[in-house]
Amino acid sequence: MTLAASRRAVLAGLLAAPAIRPAAAQGAPIRFTLDWTFQGPNAVFLHANRAGYYRAEGLNVTVDAGQGSAGAIQRIVGGAYDMGFADLNSAIEYNANNPGAPIKGVMVLFDAAPFSILTLKHKGIAAPKDLEGKTLGAPQFDASFRLFPAFCAATGVDRSKVRVQAMAPPLRETMLVRGEVDFITGHFYTSILELRARGVPANDIVVFLYSRHGLPFYGNGILASPRMLAERGEQVRGFLRATVRAMRDIVADPTRAIAALKATDPLVDEAMETERLRMALADNVLTERVRRDGWGGAGQDRLAASIEQVSAALNLPRRIAPADLFDARFLPPAAERMLT
């Protein structure tokens, strides 16, 4: 065969072959919303996407930043997104106020919520009761602030003896450093880093984690709409399998998540986000229960206790059932959810 004939044969073969679409365009589309900006603790989804784990499950996933858990839930129930990463306690509130078609968690990422109270050592607050007579600074929508009544109930603090100063989120740590408030609420891994960035020595920061003071709240998890669960269950299962695979990578090497984060948002502070992720892994993800039983599940008794505490703290109109909050049918077997 001549060279020209050979080229014609190859060209004919290519024309006859099925078209090959770009990998990013293949698979069932899933629109996924985060609860906040791109950060270390939510980079597991970015790594799963970048590593091709979702694509390997036949999925074409788009991950977008969010503006809070309540907003993420509204995006999902409104149909703009299929699934999302948001606080399960916000889902308790939404479902209590919107009966009929509850949004459900299908995987718990934070086995312990990052809710906390932070103060400075020179404030003389060494125990929860020392909060009485002091001034709390917090944004009104902050999850730790909204559940502060539950912290008070669990620790015996008289909430009527705590003054509250409302503020915008960027002012929270600054006002504590300036002495304008005595303590603040917030996600511990964010507020600690913000205080340190303002020159506060690590040994001057005092933290009360809600998870260590009688509050069994789960934190963020993967939520899905009723329609997604009813009509696209196999895709949900594939998404969860891929996410477990990605989290296993990150536990072994957190820098893989930061690489995906940097590829998504080149302006992120790699050092800060690496530390934020390591803090979240140590305190929120790799708990004793997760090491023992596997990652991602939710216990019925613990869900019921959380529902009761959240409902009381927020004065919700009704108590939902654990089955209205979490659906474990889509999780991989526990043996496949071991991270270490």
Give short descriptive properties of this protein.
340 residues; alpha/beta; 5-stranded mixed β-sheet; globular; disordered N terminus
Q: List how many beta strands DSSP finds.
A: 10
Strand order in the sheet with the most strands: 2-1-3-10-4
Strand content: 15-25%
Distance from N terminus to C terminus (CA atoms, Å) equals: 59 Å
Model regions low in confidence, pLDDT < 50 over at least 5 residues:
1-24
Write the H/E string, N to C: HEHHEHEHEEEHHEHEHEEHHHHHH
Largest sheet entry: 5 strands, mixed
- Seen as an oligomer or otherwise, the chain set is single chain
Shape: globular
Mean pLDDT: 92
Label the structural class.
Answer: alpha/beta
Rg result: 23 Å
Number of helical stretches of at least 4 residues: 15
Q: Helix share of residues? A: 40-55%
Structure description:
This protein is α/β, with parallel strands linked by helices. The protein contains 15 helices and 10 strands. The strands form 2 sheets. A 5-stranded mixed sheet has the order 2-1-3-10-4, sandwiched between helices. It has a 5-stranded mixed sheet with strand order 7-6-8-5-9. It starts with a helix and ends in a 26-residue tail after the last helix. 44% of the residues are buried.
SSE blueprint and pairings:
Elements: H1 3-16, E1 28-33, H2 44-50, H3 53-56, E2 59-64, H4 69-77, E3 83-87, H5 88-97, E4 104-108, E5 115-120, E6 135-138, H6 143-146, H7 148-155, E7 163-166, H8 172-178, E8 183-187, H9 188-197, E9 205-209, E10 220-224, H10 226-231, H11 233-252, H12 255-264, H13 270-285, H14 288-293, H15 300-314
Parallel strand pairs: 1-2, 1-3, 6-7, 6-8
Antiparallel strand pairs: 3-10, 4-10, 5-8, 5-9
Helix pairs in contact: 2-11, 2-12, 5-15
